[in-house]
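The methods section describes the discrete structure representation at length, but only in general terms. What matters is that the chain and its backbone geometry are given together, residue for residue. Nothing conveys this as quickly as seeing an actual entry. For illustration, here is how one protein appears when written out as sequence plus structure tokens:
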Amino acid sequence: MLIPDCSTPVVVLRTHHGSLGIARSLGRLGVPVHAVHSSPGSPELRSRYWRSRNFWEFDRDEPDRSVAWLLELAERLGRRAVLVPTADDLAELVAGHAQVLGEHFLFQDNPLSLVQALSAKQAFYHLAKRLGFPTAETWFPESLDDVRRFGETALFPVVLKASDGLRLEARTGRRMVIVDAPEELLAWYQRLEDPAHPSLMLQEYIPGRDADKMWLFDGCFDGNSDCLMGITGRKLRSHPVHAGATSLGICERNDLLFDQSLRFMKAVGYRGIVGMDYCWDARDGSYKLLDPNPRIAANFRLFVGSNGLDVIRCLYLHLTGQPVPQTEVVEGRKWIVEDQDFESFRDYHREGTLSLGGWLRSLAGVREGAWFAWDDLGPAFGVAMARVRRASRRLMKIVGFTQ
């Protein structure tokens, strides 16, 4: 596809493999795309499609300082740019400072209260319940005694997870655990909870194979919360397994899920890009909404329509006042995060749920990788080199050259 007017620049806040997809999707059409990241060593920054690479640590600086830095960046760019946050905290930063940022940037305009309600697990759970949309039953303990009382009457297994899975994984190496008994639940809760920042929650376990039950919706909505573009699909594998982001996905039409997603977005009055995670519950025949991410999802390049339209191209056209073409689902299109999916294969294989042959057969139909692209080899090379360095360090530690 072509974008008639691609002169408006784009600024991507925080980079990862999903951000690389933004640079390639828009950069191939001639749109100037500028990266903002915390460190220069990340492999996605090797892409030839970044017009510039800028460095700022949003995590370490006060929001007002980050906003001031963004305004300075806008002055350097010399014209109003499209601003794309790629994480929940950055979506909240933009929504919370929309008035001042709106003078220099274009972005999806949602109230801070709505962004917070969709990104915070407890707020979202109560919102979905109030609106009558199915979601997994969830409990939010405030102490070990609450967990102990829960275990006395709960039906096991249950899922123990955090409201911020990435933070929990960085601190403990896990995003969630599935527990089968009260004693096991208490032990894991004590091991994983951070007393200074308590965030663990308990969620019903929905049985079934990951590839059968984990569904996705990717869409973009206009100022009236009407859908400009929307595509459904399935998460065939995740990283980490059973709990993480998509490592292999497939586009698959699901009209019931599509309509449910549109009704939810209309009910909350959402505008812009959203990535939604669902779990099919065969016990009651419902799609339970787990995560309505109020931002672009890292897996958005799975959802490419028949004419090449994806949600970032859709948003760009909409925000710059250009017509958005209609598109159709490309049934069977697959997208993969190459390094993460290999690690997921190893974990599923250790569980006994995925053979080598099954993994290789599942790769048939992959149309795009997160890292590898013939016209942009730098990021894949960077990932490969990082893997070699990690393997070398592990080997040196094993043979005793390092402590």
Summary: The chain has a mean pLDDT of 93. Residues 378-399 form the longest helix (22 residues).
